[in-house]
Design a protein that fits this description.
Elements lengths: L12 E5 L4 H12 L5 E6 L18 E4 L5 H11 L3 E4 L6 H6 L1 H21 L5 E7 L24 H20 L2 E7 L2 E2 L7 H13 L6 E3 L5 E6 H14 L5 E4 L3 E4 H10 L7 E3 L11 E2 L4 H7 L7 H17 L4
Length: 334
């Protein structure tokens, strides 16, 4: 068998690494909405178990397991207990800008945690289907002739974070081909994720909500010249599920939206949704030493494998993002 094509009823135990993060929490919510009989386990590091705000709506519907993926014995113990049928590997330190300031920490955490996870599956002779949730950042700075970006495009990682994610990709490839692990790698392009505050779109929404509530006077931004495709977080999580259900083992898949937009134009459209005058200023501290400015994917391979098409309109997704932070501002949670 070189592909998943499992039946939902056959899945009993699902493990999500990084479940308390923004992507992991949304993924857990999506899977719960599928009304499977499977139990959802989430890895939460021992020193972060008290900070599960992203899970407040589903905390009673999942099982959190204390585990440090950077410790092989801890990882082995957890997998021996959980014995998952599916593993979604989202756990990573994912701030691109921060990775330039603390490259050793980002590289060590993201690579070692992935190595320990795959090595534990191999040692225990488990047979889960594993998704390594990677990123478009592995492609780095592409030329106009290379757009839309295919999975076979040359890798040019432009940050320590991107190097760490490419290393995860390559580890997955090695363990798939060398040890027969059932690994599928997804490379997510830009998506609107209200809970992840370091993304440009979320940062803009937070600052507009602050200005609307009299908590700030202007909006700070970095590079506005980058061109991205945008997909809604709910569509992104649906795509993650379909990737594991229908993807082929050992393959990489681009996931992205249909909306192509420059970051500056995204900001302009978001500002138009506000009834306040929004003054913007560039903040040099938000500029990366080396930035990726052209991220437009070819998603035809993923569509062929899964039938996936984004379904949430861009305008609705953008408004949902802004309203999420308006509600938090209204409730004093900014």
């Amino acid at each position: 068998m070189n592909s998943a094509n499992f039946k939902d009823k056959d899945i009993k135990r699902i493990l999500i690494t990084g479940i308390s993060g923004s992507g992991g929490s949304y993924l857990a919510e999506h899977i719960l909405k599928l009304n499977l009989k499977a139990k959802i386990y989430g890895i939460s590091r021992w020193h972060s178990t008290s900070n599960n705000n992203n899970l407040e709506n589903i905390i009673n519907d999942i099982d959190l397991v204390e585990c440090d993926l950077n410790d092989l014995s801890s990882t082995l113990k957890t997998l021996k207990i959980v014995k998952p049928d599916l593993i979604f590997h989202l756990a990573s330190q994912a701030n691109v800008k921060t990775s330039f300031n603390y490259p050793s920490a980002i590289l060590s955490n993201n690579i070692q945690s992935t190595l320990n996870l795959l090595e534990s599956v191999k040692i225990l002779n488990l047979k889960p289907i594993i998704q390594i949730c990677s990123t478009s950042e592995v492609y780095g700075q592409v030329t106009k002739e290379e757009v839309p970006i295919k999975e076979t495009n040359q890798y040019r990682p432009a940050s320590p974070y991107a190097i760490s994610k490419l290393s995860q990709d390559l580890l997955g490839n090695v363990y798939s081909k060398s040890y027969g692990l059932n690994i599928i790698t997804t490379r997510m392009f830009s998506y609107l994720n209200p809970r992840r505050t370091d993304l440009f779109a979320t940062s803009f929404a937070i600052q507009i909500a602050k200005i609307e509530h009299g908590l700030s006077n202007y909006l700070l931004h970095g590079n506005l010249k980058s061109t991205r495709t945008i997909i809604d977080v709910d569509d992104a999580m649906k795509a993650y599920w379909l990737a594991l259900k229908y993807g082929k083992f050992g393959e990489n898949y681009n996931i992205g939206g249909n909306k192509i937009i420059e970051v500056g134009e995204f900001l302009n459209q978001l500002i138009r949704l506000s009834n306040k005058k929004i003054t913007t200023k560039i903040d040099k501290n938000l500029l990366r030493p080396n930035d990726v400015t052209l991220q437009i994917p070819d998603t035809s391979k993923f569509k062929k494998a899964t039938g996936f098409e984004p379904s949430i309109p861009f305008d609705k997704s953008m408004l949902n993002l802004l309203n999420f932070w308006r509600n938090r501002a209204k409730n004093g949670k900014l």
